Amino acid sequence: MPEAVVPGADRQVRAGLLTSLVLCAVFCVALGTAYPRLLEQAAPYGAAVPAALTAALLLVTVAQHAPTRPRRPYRGLLLLAAQAVLTYIPLLVLGEPWLSALGFLLGAALAQLPRPLSLYAAAAVAASGPLIIVLLPVDNRLGLRVALDTLLVGLVVHGIVRLSRLTSQAQDERARAAARAVQRERDRVARDLHDLLGGRLSALALKAQGAAAALPPGDATAEARRELAELEEIARTALADVRGVARGRLPLALDDELARARAALAAAGVTAEVTGAPVPPGLSGPLGACLREGVTNVLRHSDARHCSVTVTRTPGAVRLTIVNDGARPGASGAQGSGLPGLAARAEELGGRLDAGPDGAGRFRLTVELPL
C-alpha cells in the first residue's frame, strides 16, 4: 500500500508565521533603540523618510521567512537582494544609525544562501560595518561596536530561523513515522484478512458451484440454480475484494458499485432509482465504499420498498445521497461500525457524512467530499 500523505503544509505555515512575529519583535527592539538618532540624522528630509525606510526594511525582512504556497525557489534570493539595497543605500541619508540594519542582512544571508556562500556573505556583511564607519564622519572606534552588534543580531536572527526550520522538520518526520506505523498495521490486518477469509470464500464459491451442478435438470430447480449462481458470484467478488486489499489497493469503483447497488436492490424487491455522475479517480474508491455500506444497511436494517441513489457533482464537491422509505423506529446512523468508519474516512478527506431519519419514515445517508 502507498504511504499515507502527511499534511505538513499547515505546520510549515504556522512555523513561518511564528518566525515572522519573533523577527518583527527583534527588529523593533534593534531599530527602536537607534530610531531617535535616525530622526536626527534625517531631519533635513523629514520624519517620513526614516519611517518609510524602516517599514520597507521590516516588510522585506519578515517576508523572507513568511510561508508561501507554492514555494518559489528564487523568492528568497530576490528578497535578499532587496534587503541588501535597503540596508546600504539609505546610509547615504541616514548615516551611522542605520548600520543597526546590518545584523538582519547577515542573518538573512546565513538563512537564505547555501554553504559556503552564506559564510562568505556573512563575513562580508560583518566587515562592511567597520569599513563604512571609516568612510563616515564619525569616531572610528565605533567600528568594533558595529561589528559586534552586527554579528550578535545576525546570529540571533539566524538562530530563530534555524530553530523554526528544525522544529518544523522534526514535526514532519514525527508525523511521517506515525503514518508509516499506521500503514504497517493496515498491511498486517490486510494480510490476516486474506489468510483467514481467502480460503473460506474460495471454498464457499466452490460449494455453491458444486451444489448447482448436483441439482437435477428441469424448471423446478431453475430458481435454486439462479440463487446458487448469485451466491457463487458474491463469494468470488468478496474473494477478489479481499485479495485486492491484501495487495495494497482498494478494489472499489463508484461505477461498479452503482451497478451492483441497482442489481442488489432489485433482487431484494426494492424499487431503485440510481443516478450517477462523473467523479475524480481519487474519490471513486471512497464513494464506492460509502455506497456499498449504505446499500447494505438498506437491505439489512430497513423495510424499504423504494430507494434512490444519487451522485451529484458541484464546482467544489461530490455528494452521494441514499434515501430509502423503510426506516424502522429508533433507527439512527450510529448503529454498528460501518458508518462511523466511513465517517472517519470522509473526515480524513476533508468531507463529512450525515446519516439519520429525515421524517415520513425515510432514512437519508449523505456523503460529501471536496474536489
From TrEMBL:
SUPFAM superfamilies per record: ATPase domain of HSP90 chaperone/DNA topoisomerase II/histidine kinase
Record bears the keyword Kinase: yes
Every Signal transduction histidine kinase subgroup 3 dimerisation and phosphoacceptor domain range: 185-248
Domain of life according to the entry: Bacteria
GO molecular function: phosphorelay sensor kinase activity; protein dimerization activity
Residues spanning the membrane: 15-36, 42-62, 74-91, 120-138, 144-161
Record-level GO cellular component terms: membrane
Any matching Pfam family: HisKA_3
InterPro entries: HATPase_C_sf (IPR036890), Sensor_HK_TwoCompSys (IPR050482), Sig_transdc_His_kin_sub3_dim/P (IPR011712)
Protein name from the UniProt record: Signal transduction histidine kinase subgroup 3 dimerisation and phosphoacceptor domain-containing protein
Organism per entry: Streptomyces caatingaensis
Taxon lineage: Bacteria, Bacillati, Actinomycetota, Actinomycetes, Kitasatosporales
